[in-house]
Sequence to fold (524 residues):
Amino acid sequence: MTGDRLQMIIAMSAYMVLVILIGLYYAKRANESSSNFFLGGRTIGPWFTALSAEASDMSGWLLMGLPGVAYWLGLSDAIWTAIGLAVGTYINWLLVARRLRNYSAISGDSITIPDFLSNRFKEKNKVIMTIAAVFILVFFTVYASSCFVTVGKLFSTLFGANYQLMMILGALFVIFYVIIGGFLAESASDFMQALVMIFALATVVLVGTRAAGGIGNVVNNIKQIPGFFEFFGIASPTLVDDVQQLDAAGNPLFGQAGKYGFLTIISTLSWGLGYFGMPQVLLRFMAIKNPADLGKSRKIATVWCVVSLIAAVSIGLIGRTLYPSTFLTNTAAESIFIEISRNLLPPLFAGIVMAGILAATISSSDSYLLIAASAVAKNIYHGVVKKDANDKEVMIVSRIVLILISVIGIIIGLDEKSIIFKIVSFAWAGFGATFGPIMLFSLFWKRTTRSGAIAGMLAGGSMVFIWKLLLNPIGGIFGIYELMPAFIISCITIVIVSLASKEPSVEIQNEFEKAKLDQTVAAS
Fold:
């Protein structure tokens, strides 16, 4: 092992030890009750709420997936995605955060998203709870897999080690961490990891820009590639068997620029719709100690999100200038952040920066695994299978489920050719279409019925699969991102079925008005 690699390992190992110590610190409080383990007892403050929400949301795709898209296809696809996410972040914090925090406390002191939806409609047979838990289990297993793929790519690229081995070791570390610490450890470490992530992004942008000869030189270079530096065009790498071809001088070949039309832009912007249904973000809204602090959290989260997204897109563009022919496949392009870091930074410092990828991965995968485990243990096992189960039993089941989910995620991630961005985009669409519409209607439309909720969730979740697997391959108008049509269909279904079914009971309507009133009072 070279001295450079040893220094990187030392820096990254020190970071991982720090994360474990945070988990151990919170282990006792986390194990006091399932409420503490899954929601931290609603005790976290505005900074932890904001930064842990953003860190758990963005995951490794922010440092690898998004820069990879910008490196491979140019500005348009990456920047429109970033704009959609930035706008979605702000609107979600503005509209949903305080109402959900108050409503979830009023409605049976709900501590999970399935809990809230079930309590919101006063379910007795827990159909909504079960459907919600199943969708969470499915999509978070996919999400967790994307995080394991990130770790595998990081260490296999960095140290030339076997991808599958590195991916499994990274997954085991995450599993151990989540089991000991629960939500409080997750939120505390996510806060720290959000700081590490933005530091890593900013550092790589600065050193990369300097090495490339400044912003002007970067822009001039990428403008030479057809469609690469356009908002309404997209680069078209010349591929043979998915590998970009080079000319006689070793320069990458591109075909004529493709069009990035209005429908494609709207489709890409629809990434922002996903936020309304992201359990890992919505739980932060529910967990804050004082709802009045959510305004402060919104500002912190939005600034962090905008700065991080701009930096991530910039890294991809800078990387194409610095290393134009280093990565010749879509999946390899997702390592551009690593390439810039290890080539332009001192080894020890590079290790600290690349700990940002670990930070992003850990902060997301711990959220995904914890929420998925809670969906099964708290909502299916305790809510449906064994209603008299005590807290100890629920905690044991949650940890067993967590391990099983991780095993499935590892199996999904064994393919070294997996593209992080594509895995994340599918899971993102799944959550956005399944939970986004019903969350908005539950919080803001009193006439929403239980039947409408069930129909809307099933329509949105199933349409993601139908559009992605059956309609998207047709191309044309069907080539748009599956989140947008699935979200719209879910909304229409909720309205039609709710209006066609009996209006909610007086009890449900009164509780809706109480949550609305509490938000008004808190805001005044």
Q: What stands out?
A: The chain is about 75% helix and 0% strand.
